[in-house]
Amino acid sequence: MMETVKPLDVVTSGKGKLRRAFVKVINIKKLTGVVPEGDKVDKDLVKNAANLSESFDKLEEEYEKRLAMEALLAKLFATVSSIKSAYAQLQYAQSPYDPAGIQRADGLVVSELKTLSELKQSFLKKEFDAYPDRTLALAEIQELRSLLKTYEITGKKMECQLKLKDSEIIFLKEKFQESLSQNKSMEKRLLNQSGPLDRNSPSHFVTYLHHTVKSIRGFVKVMIEQMRFAGWDVVTAADSIQSGVLYYKQDHTCFAFEHFVCKVMFEAFHLPYFSTESSSSKSSREMFFERFSELRSVKAREYITSRPKSRFSRFCRGKYLQLVHPRMELAFFGHNQVSTAGEFPETSFCAAFLEMARRVWLLHCLAFSFDPEEASIFRVSEGSRFSEVYMRSVSEESLLLSESEPRVAFTVVPGFRIGKTSIQCEVYLSRSKSTPCGSDKDP
Predict the structure, then answer these.
(1) What is the residue range of 266's domain?
(2) Cβ(291)–Cβ(369) below 8 Å
(3) Highest mean pLDDT among 61-65, 367-371, 392-396
(4) Which of 77, 364, 367, 396 has the largest CB neighbor count within 10 A?
(5) Range 120-127 average pLDDT
(6) 146, 260: one domain
(7) β partners of residue 416
(8) Does 372 sit behind a cis peptide bond, omega within 30 degrees of 0 on the bond before it?
(9) CA Rg, the chain, in Å?
(10) For residue 212, what pLDDT band results from cuts at 50, 70 and 90?
(11) Residue 230 included in any domain
């Protein structure tokens, strides 16, 4: 917007003979239309003053036209904002359906459209506002009111959407809890089935292996959360387990912890009771199945409390000390209750560990109850070529993003063989930071 031209009376406040004469000539000319002859003023100065006065008149006229046009445009934009606000009200009144609100909003839209048409005619006929300054202020107020109304309606819509999303969340939570209850019920029926279990069927072993891996991942999740709560660097800890692995996502470091837990928990799995003290004779297969049937319907903590010197109790304490170093236990809980007293405290961490240990023990007993040959365990070495026959990738990204033939970085969950049946191991595929892929030997 062009600045307003200063009135001529402001010039009289200046100093100097030339300025005083200039103002005098202009004022007299405006009053009489004649330049005084008696004044001793230079004729060139009088002529220039007259031209300057005429230029000021033109500038003032141009300024007034520009101001009137700006007022028209301001009113135009304010009217458009009012139309948008009225249309938003119309949409809001449609859901939920409000007949009175729809009628009011429709009347506002029609009224503002008429105003828009009138502005168009005023522009075509060059009929500008006589008070542009006032129109500018009123247009700004109108536009701000329209914007405020639009924001209010948007806020109401968002509140409705939020309530709808809250209802959806509550519904999904209920469905999730229902699904969890159904899964637990099905699992309980499977674990506590009254009928005879065909222990020689690989499908039953696969089912129990699935539950075992699920419990391992549950424990790993709790362990990582506990490490973060204690202020440990999870990435550094994962690199100390499996160094030089390029992960496709940062969250994939959890597979390194799963690898470590599985390695500890399944160590000596091929030995009866995870020990060289017993032999797996043909007559002992029934005993392994009895141990399986005995423990599958009992909670691990209850079993350990009632039989603290049993093989399973010693297995739990031994595996815990292999997984959780005394310094780690002290950092997590502030004490070494398991490593010193051999007692598992009532914590979510120990509860997750005991459930995992129970699952591994059950799987072990079931593996040694097979006739004529117990299940065996296998892993694949780092750098091995990926084979869908023996392996399954724990991450789809590693298969999709591999530049060439994918290779094994490490085994996450070991595989099993039951007679001629092979159960795939789970592996993480990546390229080492330091060395290229190694052996091409298949498992």
Answers:
(1) 190-429
(2) no
(3) 392-396
(4) 364
(5) 76
(6) no
(7) 377, 423
(8) yes
(9) 43
(10) very high
(11) yes
